[in-house]
Write a structure and sequence with these properties.
The complex is a heterodimer of chains A (about 110) and B (about 120).
Chain A (H helix, E strand, L loop, with lengths): L3 E4 L2 E4 L5 E7 L7 E6 L6 E5 L3 E2 L7 E6 L2 E6 L9 E6 L5 E2 L3 E5 L1
Parallel strand pairs in A: 2-11
Antiparallel strand pairs in A: 1-3, 3-8, 4-5, 4-9, 5-6, 7-8, 9-10, 9-11
Chain B lengths: L2 E5 L3 E2 L5 E8 L7 E7 L6 E7 L3 E4 L7 E6 L4 E6 L8 E11 L2 E7 L3 E5 L2
Parallel strand pairs in B: 2-11
Antiparallel strand pairs in B: 1-3, 3-8, 4-5, 4-9, 5-6, 7-8, 9-10, 9-11
Classes of the chains: A mainly beta (about 110), B mainly beta (about 120).
């Protein structure tokens, strides 16, 4: 099983600030990594696929980078609606998710 | 617009079988991989399994053979059976579509989720 770890567990920031979220895989997943946003009471929303490609309708302030074992999700300038939990997910063997990073209002 | 809707009982007794259905509207169920995920309270997302066109299923090995996923193309539905449930199976269960893009893939459409509690 490929284990994903995310850091930090919680990120306390203010609107307008830049958010940098990390995801590390226990072995290489090439570029087979996606990012999701989940708000309380809602389903997860696909943000990024293939490590760096924005899904349909996702604002340009969201960007993904990385390959192999180290990946980053960057939100260039936080909007009020961006405060949520973010999960990374790989599908090299069977799909696994990271434990999530909560982006909260400072 | 593609929509997914989970349905099934909200409470299941320990040792019994959890059964859920996902109804797909706005798309043919024969053209994608369809998945079940769950979110236990206080924990992260877990992939349960997937199905493609009746014959191609894949399951999470950590669930120790307790899963069966099937598809009914005439009703545009797919279903999940998880047997011998315990309290650890209490979670919000989601169905989701796996979409293949040129440069990767992702679960792009999700149901709203349904809470299942295992309790006597």
């Amino acid at each position: 099983e490929i284990v994903l770890t995310q850091s930090p567990a919680t990120l306390s920031l203010s609107p307008g600030e830049r958010a940098t979220l990390s995801c590390r895989a226990s072995q290489s997943v090439s570029s087979s990594l996606a990012w999701y946003q989940q708000k309380p009471g809602q389903s997860p929303r696909l943000l990024i696929y293939g490590a760096s490609n924005r899904a349909t309708g996702i604002p340009a302030r969201f960007s993904g980078s990385g390959s192999g074992t180290d990946f980053t999700l960057t939100i260039s300038s936080l909007e009020p609606e961006d405060f949520a939990v973010y999960y990374c997910q790989q599908r090299s063997n069977w799909p696994t998710f990271g434990p999530g990073t909560k982006v909260e209002v400072k | 617009q593609v929509q997914l809707q989970e349905s099934g009982p909200g409470v299941v007794k320990p040792s019994e079988t959890l059964s859920l259905i996902c109804t797909v509207s706005g798309d043919s169920i024969s053209t994608y991989y369809w998945n079940w995920m769950r979110l236990p309270p206080g924990k992260g997302l877990e992939w349960i399994g997937s199905i493609y066109d009746k014959r191609d299923t894949s399951y999470n090995p950590s669930l120790n053979g307790r899963i069966t996923i099937s598809i009914d193309t005439s009703r545009n539905q797919f279903s999940l059976n998880l047997n011998s449930v315990t309290a650890a199976d209490s979670a919000v269960y989601y169905c989701a579509r796996l979409h293949y893009y040129d440069a990767g893939d992702g679960f792009d459409i999700w149901g709203q989720g349904t809470l299942v509690t295992v309790s006597s």
